[in-house]
């Protein structure tokens, strides 16, 4: 507020009213996005702390820092927090909440109160899961596999399951809001073919949230009921089947991978085209590839179960179907590359993160093809190869995209620029740290080191030390943005409405946007990403 | 835009609601009666068929799907389609697990 004296401060969503109540009872999608931002950042650091404990334990071959039981709880809580309470809400609930209404030219999401409810459900779920962790923890792995979770584990499985069950409804409500908003609240002229690819990607993810999440909710409820009342759905002695759990769990949890990655891909589509100063290559293909990934993502789940004892014939079918997902994913990667071809590329921080995303996601995706191949999967299943693969997609892909998006839209969200030099350094540290952490794990897995053990044979130590060292670099890479983002709130340069000279409705309103986004409803008369014909000076709508 | 107002504005005669309710009640009684007779594996089949018909009636009339815009119908069909995927692809496992009778496997 130091600069407020210079001019009469323009009213925006941050200064329209003050006080804790104005935040906790807000129905403004932008404020709810900030609530989500703070909550998931806290969860990210908690999950990151557990990851560091895991890496520290693995510094030496002997299980000397923590007991095996504690280790089991650490990787379980790391997984649960990062998947359900950070990655799934990350881009949709923070950036999606903030940007979808602005991008389609609406004053808010379709159901603002439902949006607030989704944050409260998220918090209720997170607190329930955290209570389960604090009062003793869970040791089943984030996958809650039966019969261990239903019969043998002596830890707080029910509490954690109920936490995820509640948070699932938060996800459903966010998805529902996006679907209705994108269908119903587009500004005049904002046709489906002019819709920003970020909205297409969030729309595709929303479909999965709405259709898939009820299945995980019911499944975890069944685990809780099985533990408490021995109803016999998963217990063979009572006529159940433990593998049924894996079918139901992965029916949601594999598509959930696409809930996590699709909005990230939307972020990358926006950034690549902006920093190449070119219309995105193959707009329709990128948009429809998002929908194709959402649908195909539901047909591949049993590739997690190839060595679990499913029918060989089913395994053949699922292996083949899994290959299909590579097609729309590759369409996107090729189209981003083609967008950059002959573009005038600017190397700002969001673009650096986007480069990281494209490279690392490709590695993650292609090693996914290895794992979908039956013969190779038998060899590397449950080894560090799998761990490296999904971290390349989730951290190398999704977290990179989230960081890219945060930097890209930070000026819009806060009205302030972050320090570019520090941000570039952080992007570099994250890229180097990430690869140093996880590339050795591909080799460890290929050599046969199984995942989820707290001790290992001494010959694997060099690669494990490398991995732990990389994790330290990665941690610095994530601490830096935390510091300079907070710093920029007070000391950052004022951003102005459109610091990147980007196209899109969100850049036509002031930064930070006014509470009701648009003073008058914008009328869209131009194509999405029309960078070739874009005038250098922006015209602001309604101001 | 016109589609929404149409669905909101549609008025269903009370007589239709009562008829649907009567059908649902009759089917509930049928379910109970059939459950008492032992018809082997068909007990489950009959119960599920009746339950499906009842659910369809509720969705069509009580939840106004019959009078809703096509987009709402598409949403319900999509949900049913994904349920079909869940059951169908899971069955590729359960129905073929016994095919491989090689004792060494």
Q: Which properties best describe this structure?
A:
heterodimer, A: 543 residues, mainly alpha, Cytochrome C Oxidase, Chain A, 15 helices, 66% helix, 0% strand, disordered N terminus, B: 105 residues, 4 helices
Structural description of this entry:
With 543 residues, chain A is mainly α. Chain A has one domain: Cytochrome C Oxidase, Chain A (Up-down Bundle), CATH 1.20.210. Chain A is built from 15 helices and no strands. Residues 1-6 and 536-543 of chain A have low confidence and may be disordered. By secondary structure, chain B is mainly α. In chain B, 73% of the residues lie in helices and 0% in strands. Chain B contains 4 helices and no strands. The longest helix of chain B is centred in the C-terminal third of the chain and has 25 residues, at 70-94. The radius of gyration of chain B is 20 Å and the shape is flat. The A-B interface holds A 183, 207, 211-212, 215, 243-244, 247-248, 251, 298-299, 301-302, 310-314, 317-318 and B 71, 78-79, 82, 85-86, 89-90, 92-97, 99-100.
Short structural description:
Chain A has a single domain, classed as Cytochrome c oxidase-like, subunit I domain (Cytochrome C Oxidase, Chain A).
Largest sheet of chain A: none
Gross geometry of chain A = globular
Helix content class of chain B = over 70%
Q: How far is it from the N-terminal to the C-terminal residue of chain A, by CA? A: 22 Å
Q: Share of helix among residues of chain A?
A: 55-70%
List the helices and strands and how they pair.
The complex is a heterodimer of chains A (543) and B (105).
Chain A: H1 20-24, H2 29-57, H3 68-104, H4 112-134, H5 148-152, H6 157-184, H7 197-229, H8 242-276, H9 283-296, H10 312-340, H11 349-372, H12 374-380, H13 384-414, H14 420-446, H15 461-491
Helix pairs in contact in A: 2-3, 2-4, 2-15, 3-6, 3-7, 3-8, 3-13, 4-6, 6-7, 7-8, 7-9, 8-9, 8-10, 8-11, 8-13, 9-10, 10-11, 11-13, 11-14, 13-14, 14-15
Chain B: H1 2-9, H2 14-36, H3 42-62, H4 70-94
Helix pairs in contact in B: 2-3
């Amino acid at each position: 507020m130091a600069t407020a004296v210079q001019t009469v401060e323009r009213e925006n969503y941050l200064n329209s009213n003050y006080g804790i109540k104005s935040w906790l009872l807000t129905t403004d999608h932008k404020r709810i996005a900030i609530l989500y931002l703070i909550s998931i950042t806290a969860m990210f650091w908690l999950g990151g702390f557990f990851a560091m404990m895991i890496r520290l334990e693995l510094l030496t071959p002997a299980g000397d820092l923590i007991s095996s039981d504690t280790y089991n709880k650490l990787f379980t809580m790391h997984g649960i927090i990062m998947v359900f309470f950070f990655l799934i809400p990350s881009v949709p609930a923070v950036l999606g909440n903030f940007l979808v209404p602005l991008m389609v030219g609406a004053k808010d999401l379709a159901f603002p109160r439902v949006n607030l409810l989704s944050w409260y459900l998220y918090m209720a779920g997170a607190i329930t899961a955290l209570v389960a962790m604090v009062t003793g923890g869970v040791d089943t792995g984030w996958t809650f596999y039966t019969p261990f979770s239903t019969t043998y584990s002596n830890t707080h499985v029910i509490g954690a399951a109920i936490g995820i069950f509640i948070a699932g409804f938060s996800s459903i409500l966010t998805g529902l809001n996006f679907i209705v908003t994108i269908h119903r609240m587009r500004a005049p002229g904002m046709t489906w073919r002019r819709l920003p690819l970020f909205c297409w990607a969030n729309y595709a993810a929303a479909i999965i949230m709405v259709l898939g999440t009820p299945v995980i909710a019911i499944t975890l409820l069944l685990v809780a009921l099985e533990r408490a009342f021995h109803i016999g759905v998963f217990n063979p002695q009572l006529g159940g089947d433990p593998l049924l759990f894996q079918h139901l769990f992965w029916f949601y949890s594999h598509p959930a991978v696409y809930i996590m990655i699709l909005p990230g891909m939307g972020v990358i589509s926006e950034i690549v085209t902006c920093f190449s100063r070119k219309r995105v290559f193959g707009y329709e293909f990128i948009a429809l590839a998002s929908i194709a990934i959402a649908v195909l993502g539901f047909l591949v789940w049993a590739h997690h179960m190839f060595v679990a004892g499913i029918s060989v014939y089913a395994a053949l079918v699922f292996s083949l179907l899994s290959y299909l997902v590579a097609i729309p994913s590759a369409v996107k990667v090729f189209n981003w590359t083609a967008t950059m071809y002959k573009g005038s590329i600017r190397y700002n921080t969001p673009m650096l993160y986007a480069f990281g995303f494209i490279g690392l996601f490709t590695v993650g995706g292609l090693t996914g093809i290895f794992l979908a191949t039956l013969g190779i999967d038998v060899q590397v299943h449950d080894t560090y190869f799998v761990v490296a693969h999904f971290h390349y997609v989730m951290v190398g892909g999704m977290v990179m995209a989230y960081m890219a998006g945060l930097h890209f839209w930070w000026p819009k969200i806060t009205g302030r620029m972050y320090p570019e030099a520090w941000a570039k350094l952080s992007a570099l540290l994250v890229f180097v740290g990430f690869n140093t952490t996880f590339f050795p794990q591909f080799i460890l897995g290929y050599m046969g080191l199984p995942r989820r053990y707290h001790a290992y044979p001494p010959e694997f130590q060099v690669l494990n030390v490398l991995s732990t060292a990389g994790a330290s670099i990665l941690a610095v890479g994530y601490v830096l943005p935390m510091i300079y983002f907070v710093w920029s709130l007070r000391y950052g340069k004022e951003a102005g409405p459109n610091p990147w000279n980007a196209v899109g409705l969100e850049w036509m309103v002031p930064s930070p946007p006014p509470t009701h986004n648009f003073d008058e409803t914008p009328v869209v008369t131009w194509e999405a990403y029309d960078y070739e014909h874009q005038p250098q000076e922006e015209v602001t709508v309604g101001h | 835009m016109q589609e929404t107002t149409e669905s909101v504005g549609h008025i269903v005669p009370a007589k239709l609601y009562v008829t649907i309710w009567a059908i649902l009640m009759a089917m509930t009684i049928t379910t109970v009666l059939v459950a008492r007779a032992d018809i082997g594996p068909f007990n489950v089949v009959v119960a599920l068929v009746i339950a499906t018909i009842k659910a369809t009636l509720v969705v069509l009339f009580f939840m106004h799907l019959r009078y809703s815009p096509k987009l709402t119908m598409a949403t319900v069909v999509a949900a049913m389609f994904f349920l079909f995927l869940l059951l169908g692809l899971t069955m590729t496992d359960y129905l073929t697990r016994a095919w491989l009778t090689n004792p060494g496997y």
